[in-house]
Each structure stands twice: as structure tokens, then as C-alpha cells.
Specification:
The protein is α/β, with parallel strands linked by helices. It is built from five helices and six strands; from the N terminus they run ββββααβααβα. The strands form two sheets. It has a three-stranded mixed sheet with strand order 2-1-3, with no helix packed on it. Strands 4-5-6 form a three-stranded parallel sheet. The relative contact order is 0.16.
């Protein structure tokens, strides 16, 4: 697993050490997390709520460009470490209308097929990212070794 060196509050994936050979910190071209050797096809961006609001307002052109670039990756995911109801509620730290943020997320989903997941806690965000990257790596390995995109008969 790769963690971008610029990630300000990186997840601690130690409880998932059986899923990965290791965790390496290095500058990534895009996003906060990826998989070694799959950096050009897999990207995960993580935002806490205040960073998401800031990114969609004060840094909007830069963030929109990052999301557009992410949309070109076959495997991409935006993880928001806040409950969806919190994203849709008034912010104590900003007077930005929550509908503006929600509609930006929906526009990225509809316009660029950029999926996002909201998690209630930092720890759950950590688990979602670890699980997602593990599954991306697993399906890549299955495809690369001639097993197809399923784990067992009638699976995904």
C-alpha cells in the first residue's frame, strides 16, 4: 500500500497488516493512497469534512481539476470521513451552504462517474480504504493470473 507523503493526517493501517506486504510513504502523482505498481490505475483521495468544504470552495478550481484527473483512473474513490448527514448539515466552521457541497459531490458522481463514500469515523474510513485497495489488488492479481474477475463460482 502507498501513502502520499503530503497526506496531513494519514491513516494507520497497522491493523490490516495481513492484507498488505507493507505500507510505503512516497509522493503520489494524484490522491492520498494507492497500491504499489498500480499508481497509474488506482487512486484514493481522502477528505475530512472541513477539508472537503475548503476544497470545494476556496480551492475549487484546483480540487475540481484533481477530481477530473481522478475520473480517468479505472479504479478511483473519494472517501469522506464524515457521515453523509453531516455533509448535508450546517457547518459550525463555515457559512457555506451544505447543498453546494452535496451538489458538487453528486455532480462529480454523475458527470465523471467518480464514486464517493462517507464514513462516520476516521477508523471506519481507514477500514474502507484498506478494504478497497485490498480488493483492487486482489482483482488485479486474479485478472493478471488468468482467473477472471471472480473469487469463486457465481461471485462478483
Amino acid at each position: 500500500m502507498l501513502v502520499d507523503t503530503r497526506e496531513q493526517n494519514p491513516f494507520d493501517f497497522s491493523r490490516f497488516d495481513g492484507w498488505f506486504a507493507g505500507v510505503e510513504k512516497k509522493p503520489l502523482k494524484l490522491g492520498d493512497y494507492s497500491i504499489a505498481t498500480l499508481e497509474d490505475s488506482c487512486v484514493v483521495e481522502r477528505k475530512d469534512l472541513s477539508d472537503l468544504v475548503h476544497s470545494f470552495t476556496a480551492e475549487r478550481p484546483l480540487f475540481i481539476n484533481r477530481l477530473r484527473l481522478m475520473s480517468a483512473y479505472p479504479q478511483r474513490l473519494l472517501v469522506i470521513t464524515a457521515a453523509l448527514s453531516t455533509v448535508k448539515s450546517s457547518y459550525a466552521f463555515s457559512d457555506v451552504n451544505p447543498n453546494r457541497i452535496m451538489q458538487s459531490l453528486i455532480a462529480a458522481l454523475a458527470g465523471w462517474s467518480l464514486p464517493f463514500v462517507c464514513t462516520e469515523t476516521h477508523e471506519l474510513g481507514e477500514e474502507i480504504i484498506a478494504s478497497y485497495l485490498y480488493q483492487v489488488h486482489l482483482y488485479h492479481w486474479l485478472d493478471s493470473n488468468g482467473y477472471g474477475r471472480y473469487l469463486a463460482d457465481n461471485d462478483l
